[in-house]
Write a structure and sequence with these properties.
mainly beta; four-stranded antiparallel sheet; 30% strand; Photosynthesis system II assembly factor Ycf48/Hcf136-like domain-containing protein; Sialidase_sf
Length: 174
Amino acid sequence: MKNTLLFLMLISLLFSCRKTTETPLDMPDTEDICRHREALFSPQGYEIESIGTLDFNGGMDAFRMLDQQTGYALASNNVGGYAEVFKTENGGISWTNLEVNIPFRPLAMVFRDTDYGLITVNDRTGCDGTDCLSRTVAFRTENGGTTWERIEYLKYRGCSPIWFTMMTAFFMPI
């Protein structure tokens, strides 16, 4: 009886270990995998009309349209993770990269009007792996994004939003 049981186990082991032909996975082209697109969906009963495109290598963090023509887009570049700011002056038909040269990961953006705006970024320079979100830097423009001035708030932490109130003061939760 022992021999019969051992023989059956050996036979089942041999048949379970035989090589089978594997069917290759049907993988899409690498180009399709690496292409990143942001998708917008309209609320039920509405449609989104495409009026322009914004071509860059990254993800969108924020859009702010200030009137029918002027708007800003904050993006993070996939290569290096730095902030990019784009501006439209024709309702989104075309966008101009403002070349802000801010080498940090973007967090938030707010504009009081077409000239005055703020963006916040996370500066991880010198981070040793602990408390890396503890240094947020704000950049301010007073000329519609032509130039940006760095403003540091040492107590500001993380990626909380910023906003204006009464069009005179901005707030960043601490």
